[in-house]
Amino acid sequence: MSFTKADVQRDVQYKTSRSGGKGGQNVNKVSSKVELLYSISDSTLFTDEQKALLTSKLQSRFNKDGLLQIVCEEERSQYLNKEKALEKLLAILTKALHQPKKRKASKPSKASVAARLDDKRRASLKKLNRRFNSHD
């Protein structure tokens, strides 16, 4: 499933507020902190199966209203924080939808079996040579 920023952005809501921490007058005057809210259940981008998968995998990330919430206050600019929050959302959704391929069992190759047996034989001979002979 591939989706773009523009596809996801249609269903996204933003809340902005003043960011905390260092920054002096910029922090006191500019609302640069961004809170991204995304409703998976209301999204038109995913099928019902994908929504169920996303809901089960991302259950711990939902707020009390059932929305996926991402907060970003890393940059001084509100626009850059919105971009970073959207990128985080895309990464989270992509990772949650990724299903790894099933591993197919295979036989070891003849060369690998021969190499293993050869190593085993060498180790056995090494230990055999360490033995104390009382016949001499």
Molecular structure report:
- By secondary structure, the chain is of the alpha+beta class.
- It is built from five helices and three strands, in the order αβαβαβαα.
- The chain has helices at 5-9, 25-29, 48-57, 78-97, 110-129, and strands spanning 12-17, 33-38, 68-72.
- Strands 1-2-3 form a three-stranded antiparallel beta sheet, with helices on one face.
- The longest helix is centred in the middle third of the chain and has 20 residues, at 78-97.
Task: Summarize this structure as a short list of keywords or feature phrases.
alpha+beta; single chain; 3 strands; 136 residues
Strand content: 5-15%
Largest β sheet strand count, sense and barrel closure: 3 strands, antiparallel
The secondary-structure class comes to alpha+beta
- What is the gyration radius calculated from CA atoms? 29 Å
Based on DSSP secondary structure assignment, what is the total number of beta strands? 3
Main β-sheet, spatial strand arrangement = 1-2-3
- Residue share in helix: 40-55%
Number of helices: 5
Distance between the termini: 76 Å
- N to C succession of SSEs: HEHEHEHH
Mean pLDDT value = 85
Uncertain stretches of 5 or more adjacent residues: none
Which descriptor suits the 3D outline? elongated
In short:
This protein has 136 residues and is α+β, with helices and mostly antiparallel strands. Helix content is 44%, strand content 12%.
Write the layout of secondary structure elements.
Elements (H helix, E strand, L loop, with lengths): L4 H5 L2 E6 L7 H5 L3 E6 L9 H10 L10 E5 L5 H20 L12 H20 L7
Antiparallel strand pairs: 1-2, 2-3
